[in-house]
Each structure stands twice: as structure tokens, then as C-alpha cells.
Amino acid sequence: MKYRGYLLILGAITLFSTIEVVSKYLQSGHGAAGQVGAVQVAALRFMLAAGFLMPLLLVRRQGRFLIEAVQKDGPALALLGAIGVFLTFYLLHSGIESTSASTAAVIFSMNPVFTVLIASIVLRERLGLYGWLGVGLGLAGAFIAVTGFKFSGLLSRDDFFGSILILLAAAAWAGYTVYGKKYSQQYGALAVSFLSMAVGSVLFIITLTIKSGWHEMAEYKPITWAWLLYLGIITVGIGYILYFEGLRRVPASRGVSLFYLKPILALLIAHTALGEPLSYNLLLASTMVASGILLVTLPRENNHREAASNRKE
Fold it and tell me: Model's pTM, two decimal places?
């Protein structure tokens, strides 16, 4: 049971590791798919994903949780969707336009580190020595990925601005994770995720309308739509199912700790698929971020065990 759980989570993380690579491929315009705008990629990802999850909600008979969530906590969940989907992925895809897929993946992988940091401040969750060491390593890795140790003209560089946007996206997603935890426990992760995607999709639709971004979609090639479907249905829809099905079979802290693989996998995929160079700075940054993720997630299981032991005593 646990073995299958780890395989499911590994499959999900592998899919998640391709998001920045495929997004960069679409947004750069260098491939056969042609160029797709950042807002269009973000919007279609979650519109397609929400459409994919709706039948799943009905099949699993979770529609009543959806209705209850809207009635009791509609405004709060709308705000979560605005932050966790619209703001997060507007920033992420805008940042991808001026950075490499490798850099974007390493920086956005910081979100588990930001999550435990915010949880320690807002929810007063204890991190412990290894947790704080993980936060420090993660932040140092992000610093290396953002700056590349090249400080001359740093503030005027497009890649620096793009990296900052992605760092803000990681922080926004972490905030969504922390504040959305109680709603996921109350109404179920599937219902809350669908509502977040629905709210985010509506905001993206409004943004596209204001920017007159709909007409571009009529010119997309079949290969472009294929990759957009991959981003929406495979990485978000199926990736979500694999991840949460896996977490049902293994201890949550151990399952989440596998996220340390994401920056490393994304780096290798970007190098193989897009030919992005494996620079020493980025390798060092990805190693530090991965180590930070591992340190901030693994100790949490020990903390839960200690708390449970104290309650028994």
C-alpha cells in the first residue's frame, strides 16, 4: 500500500516538474507550437483543469461539500482562489517569460519552505532546529537562483525581475496552502481546489477580456492546444489525483518530503527538452532548495509523533 502511494506521489511530482518546461516552450515561441501569451497559458491551464475536475466531483458525490463551502465560507474561499490561482499563476507565468524554465522551476519549488515558514508565524507551528536550517538553506538557494552571483546591473536585468515575480508566486502559493488548510479539512481538498480554480478562471477570463486576449486563441495550432491540454488536464487534473491518492496511502510528511525531487527533475527535463545549460550556480541552487525542502518537511512527522506521545502520557 505504501509502496504504491510513493509511486503515485512520484508520478505526480514528475508531472509537476514539467510545468515550467512546457510553459516556457509555449511562451517562448521557439517551437512548432508558436508563441502563447503568459495570461493565456495560465488561464487555459485552470479553465481546462476546472472542467476536468467538475465531473470528478459529481462522480465522487462531493457536490454537497461544494454547495456547503459556498454557503458558509464563500467570500473566504473566493479570496483564496484569487490568491492561490489567479495571483500565483499570473506571477509565475509572467516571470517565466523572462527567465529560463530551470530557474523558474528551482525558485517556485521554494513554496514548501515558504509554507512551513508562514505556518510557523501564523499558526505558531514549531519548526525545530532542522526546520530552521531547511528554511535558511532554501532561502540561500533561492538567492543564488535569483541573482546567479551576478550583481552588475542586477536591478535592470529582465531575468532578475522575472525571478522576483516567481519568488512572489511561490510565497503566494504558500500563503494559499496555509490558509486553505482548514477549508480543505472541512470540505475536502477536491471541492476547495475546484472552487479555487473556478474563481481563478473567472478572474483570468476578465483579464483576457480587458486585454483583448481572446482573438489570439483562434490562431493556435493543434500542437499548441495539445500542450495546453497537457498543462491543464494532465499536470493539474491527473497530477492532482495522483498526488492526493498517494497521500492517502503514506504518512503526509513523508509524501510531501518527496517534493525535494522537483527542482532536480525540472532541471534535468529543461536541459533535455529545451537544451538549457546546467550551470554550476543553478545546480548549487537546486541542491540547496531540495535540501531545504527535505529538512523542513521530514521533521514535521517527528513533531506529530512527539505530540501524540505527550497526549498519551
Answer: 0.86
